[in-house]
Amino acid sequence: MSATCYHCGLDLQAESTFSAVIGNSEKSFCCHGCQTVCQTIYDAGLASFYQKAPETQILTPPAEDFEYSDTSFYDLEEIQADYVNQQGEFNQIELLVENIHCAACVWLIEKSLNAQEGLEEAHVNFTTKRLKVAWRPKDLKLSKIFKLLQQIGYQATPFDSDEAEQQEIATHRQLVYRMAFAGFAMMNMLWVSIALYTGADQGEFKMWFYWISFIIATPTFLYAGYPFIKQGLGGLVRRQLTMDLPIAIGATVTYAYSTYVLLAPSSTGHIYFDTVVNFLFVILVGRYFEAAAKRKALSETHRLMTLQPKLATRIEAGESQVISIKTVKEGDIVLVKPGDSIPVDGKVISGESAVDESMLTGESIPIVKTVGEHVIAGSINTEGALKVQVEHILNQTALAKMLLLMAQAQQDKAPIQALADKVVPWFVLATISLAVVTFLIWYRIDVEKALLAATSVLIITCPCALGLATPMSMAIATGVAAKNGVILKSGMALQQLARVNHMIFDKTGTITQGKLSLCYSEPSEGDTAERLLQIAASLESYSEHPIATAIVREAKKKNLSLQVITHFQNVPGKGVSADIGQQHYYIGTQNYLEEIGVELAPKWLEMLQKCEQEAISTIFIVEDNVVSGMMGFRDKLRPDASLTIDTQRNEGLFVEVLSGDKKAVVKAMMKRLGGLNYQAELLPEDKVRFIKARQQQEKVIAMIGDGINDAAALTQADVGIAMSSGVGMAVEGADIVLPQNKLASLLVVKHLAEKTDKVIKQNLMLSLSYNIIMVPLAMMAMINPLVAAVTMPISSLFVIANASRIQTNKKASR
Amino acid sequence: MEVIYGLLPGMLILGVVGVVVFIWAVKTGQYDDLDGAGHRVLLDDEDEAEQNNEQEKLK
Lengths: 814, 59
Description:
The complex is a heterodimer.
Chain A: E1 18-22, E2 25-29, H1 32-43, H2 49-52, H3 77-83, E3 85-87, E4 90-97, H4 103-114, E5 119-125, E6 130-135, H5 142-151, E7 156-158, H6 163-200, H7 206-224, H8 226-237, H9 244-263, H10 273-306, E8 311-316, E9 319-324, E10 333-336, E11 345-350, E12 353-356, H11 358-361, E13 367-369, E14 374-375, E15 380-381, E16 386-392, H12 398-410, H13 415-443, H14 447-461, H15 464-483, E17 487-488, H16 491-499, E18 502-506, H17 507-511, E19 517-523, H18 529-540, H19 546-557, E20 566-571, E21 575-580, E22 583-588, H20 590-595, H21 602-613, E23 616-623, E24 626-634, H22 641-650, E25 654-658, H23 663-672, E26 677-679, H24 684-696, E27 701-705, H25 711-716, E28 719-723, H26 728-733, E29 736-738, H27 745-779, H28 785-808, H29 810-813
Parallel strand pairs in A: 18-25, 18-27, 25-26, 27-28, 28-29
Antiparallel strand pairs in A: 1-2, 3-4, 4-6, 4-7, 5-6, 8-9, 8-10, 10-16, 11-14, 11-16, 12-13, 12-15, 17-29, 19-24, 20-21, 21-22, 22-23, 23-24
Chain B: H1 4-27, H2 36-43, H3 48-58
């Protein structure tokens, strides 16, 4: 068994293991961050966290360099004004903590926060991953709370629950109340029904039972049935036939008829109050599941919205300061770092960069913006740092329009669901016509029979099962996915994934861990490795590429100070360039060097070849057009990469790997994975082109990637899947987000998608065949409304039971 | 069987009480976090025994 990190449980890499004596024994860690977090936990006397955390669960390693990150801007009043509630001497805030994944996390957070002086109460909602904190502002700063969370390995974001969400919650509660009431009524009604059907309708208590039924049914009909009647009539006024109309007619007719029987002393008919109540309850249960599925999707997208930039870095008199977006004024100047979302609409006044506007325009290739050009809020700065003069903020920006688009995307339904919606008016029309026809046929024979048969038709055809078929399956699938740490952004993605027959993986960061480490450094003669590293780190600190991160991390480890650079430029997939003082530097791949016309001496070429055969990626540092050194980086395969890929190939999927890396490096790596097809030395736009070409061959493509250079490819693919450790931007292009460090969960999602697709089709078949059998029987007056009301929920139960099979799937729950 | 005249209204009253309690529970947020509460009960103790346990395991 390989050694694992004591804190996060990741496999340890021999060359980068940290050990320390913590709590009486030596423990090994995968990174400095894990070690620090563990030390903090032991120091706080909360060591039993490690016994409480489930063993199989891999904890999220803390963010790189979390000790250096600055939280002090959370103390600014204008930022707090957006999120903080004041209650007496306490302040309250709701935080979204992304990486809560087990009950032990909840315990750790609550324990360590509650031990803090000045903190009144910390309460974690495990389901929504939200943390409610109340604290005394005079004893404790908000930034300290953020710092504490970081120290035990959690990243928090302030959560601004807006009006739309409040409204959502209120509507949802209304539905729950109505359902609960109908449920209560149904349970009591059943007792009465049993008595009536076993003979009480003959004896002296007949009227008493009838009146009790009436007393139970009336409030149920009025309260629980109200939304249906309102919607059905409302639809009629707008000349639309809605699903609610037959429900409303069915319930009203049955109720009215039963009331007539009760009040008219001469009548000999039965009452059907129990039908009304049971019918409404079952339909409300269906509605509840539908709403729950929708709510889940809503809160997911809502979460994304809250991660939109709400802070901006304003530059005033040469000093930069992080402030709330609400306090930015027109004409201010804000700084946008590479990889950040641009928080405002404005004009570039300094810097040059490519900006990804795909979220707004659908144009997936970043557009180069130079001084004088306009940038829009919500687009993403991919390369250089920009200074932007603010023109529009908040509601006036294109970002506001984008949020509107996102709101529409929330209502994005699965294709089958969309089809169902188109069919509904015709279905309703057919239902009502059938009922009317049935009534007219039987009218001449017996009015009561005609009324009952027509009502039966209405109740039977009530498309509960049909309406439940898709949302129910989707809700369960989303739940199963969430349990495995996978986020599904839309039902559509899941259905697409079921059809996928071609998987394309990115190499760096997807099938490898993406954590490159510097393993080789060769300065030119007379130069030192240290100086080389210092130069490289100074340039690369502006980039987000894994190589850049590795260099900067290495430099920090050696305590090298960074130099000031100017004219920074990032050429995606190739390298970076900048000036330090009078010298001009390039750092990049061999290709990049060729492009800028720098020749490599034979000595370098030889070394390059040797490295590539060992799957070591290399970059060169060029100082004033002379090569001054070379660096090599090694990346490890994810432990579950080969399992994932082998399983998929065995299942008949075609697997390919796209990489921006050098051909020889990729080749060496693919050999270890059993000779996969690969394309190397691709630029981001090449990847997009490649996927397009494959799509023209009628292949349904899932792209699995991370990082900025995959964002476009993820969008182009039929299904974009991102690793959540990736840069925020790639996650935005993705339909499905896999949990950190668990590539194998891809298998789970794929099986889940196939299973769900199958179950949805089965469910639609089930409810259709139910209708085909029952409707003719009802029209022949062979079914009275009660039987109809009993069989209808049974068909719904079939659908629900079938859908819940998704959950018990062995493969999915693995 | 005249007892039925009393039983049925009694049943209804009990039922109404049930509904009222349920609505109260929803309103006070008891259904907001269904997963957390169950675990919290099990995890709330920090005692010496567990730390000793860990040391013994290592020996």
